[in-house]
Amino acid sequence: MDTLLSVRNIETWYGPVNAIRGVSLEVQAGRIVAVLGANGAGKTTLLNTIAGVIDPARGSVHFDGRRIDGLDADAVCRAGVVLVPEGRQLFPFLTVEENLRMGAFARRPREGIARDLERVYDWFPRLRERRRQRAGLLSGGEQQMVAIGRAFMAQPRLLLLDEPSLGLSPLFTKEIFGIVRRISAETHTAVLVVEQNAAIALASADDGYIVELGRVVAAGSCAELSARDDVQRFYLGHAVAHVAHGTAGGVRPPRRSLSWH
Predict the structure, then answer these.
(1) Could you tell me the residue range of the domain that residue 126 belongs to?
(2) Are strands 207-212 and 190-194 parallel, antiparallel or unpaired?
(3) Measured CA distances, 248 to 4, 162, 170, 240 (Å)
(4) Where are any strands of DSSP class E within 29-106?
(5) The overall pTM is greater than 0.70
(6) Considering the domain boundaries, does residue 247 fall inside one?
(7) I need a labelling partner for 54 at 20 to 30 A (CA). Which of 41, 60, 69, 99 fits?
(8) Residue 108 phi, psi (nearest 5)
(9) 168, 200 in Cβ contact below 8 A?
(10) β-strands 58-63, 66-67: how paired?
């Protein structure tokens, strides 16, 4: 498999706080990779560093063989790495379709935008029904659909998803992750998803990393991680049985640090 994203020993600071401490990870082309961890583990900082929102103090980020750390966020996006931020960050007074078309604002050439818009509506039929409705009036799940659809309109090769299940019902969460898998399968788009709902993330992704206090403490295929007693105990609780039956359970953040360094 081809390595699309390679992160090597990055360190990122918020003022005096060392939020990311020597993190390394890889995303293969067409694969879905989950990053798990409790609040404050550094997951969002990791995505923002990859997306060019924050510059790392040390380390490197390569995308498709090209070094992208140090580039502005818009240059990273144009290169094919597109972030769906936590909280969606839509344009609330624009319609659903206007928000989706904003995702294609920087596309050159402009051909294919109408085709891709139809593809988004195929993945999210309720957005077609609400295409003239203001985005700020949608439910949280529908807004997440718009955010993912808007990101796809930028023609990503790597989609970064920050807590896509935040504030959503279990039904909407399951629907969102199902569509993410469909998008990846149909378009060969790689996905790096940060998620606290460990059960559905491990059930939906191919590979996974667990981050604690800014460090990667475990990595492997999601099947391997799900089978580990320590992952089951600290991150899945009793949710493993639900994963086996294809439904999502809740997350129990670790009560002590995992020792997999």
Answers:
(1) 90-154
(2) unpaired
(3) 29, 18, 7, 9
(4) 32-36, 58-63, 66-67, 81-84
(5) yes
(6) no
(7) 99
(8) -140, 125
(9) no
(10) antiparallel
